[in-house]
From TrEMBL:
Organism: Pluvianellus socialis
Lineage: Eukaryota, Metazoa, Chordata, Craniata, Vertebrata
An example Gene Ontology biological process: acrosome assembly
Name of the encoding gene: Spaca1
Protein name per its UniProtKB record: SACA1 protein
Keywords: Membrane, Transmembrane, Transmembrane helix
InterPro entries on file: SPACA1
Amino acid sequence: GIGIREVLLTSGCPGTETKCIIRVEECQASVDCGWGIPISEGLACVKMPCIFIPPENRFKYVWKMLVPNKTAHILPNDSSIMEVCRDTHSVTFQCETQENGNTVASIKYTVYAKTEMQTKMSKRLETEQSRRTKTDAILVFCLVTGIIMTVGVIFPMIFMIL
């Protein structure tokens, strides 16, 4: 296949991270390049790219909506990028990149529901605020230590000169 994929670790990451990238690798043997990250993601809509290498028009793109325990629903979109607006339920999409009738790459995306995204964003904000608080405390400690060290060096030097 063509393209790259990120190999993620979901436990044992440093700090409080829930996911971390172990490595990025090229998809060579299998056409399934796993799960992708959208180009842009907002509370309302998501833009998802298919896997391709230039020139983009060399390939045909087949977008599918994957429904558990059912046959995939083929969508009319045949472009390399698809924009989807969030619904009340999470939906999984798959894009197959085809060349001369053969699938050369396949990538999946989960588009979370609006309520799930709001929950994730609020958790992310809480995590960022706790990190910011820790970082601020460390900076204050360093600043106070620096001032004490500077004063501790300058005063003895002045007394030695006098």
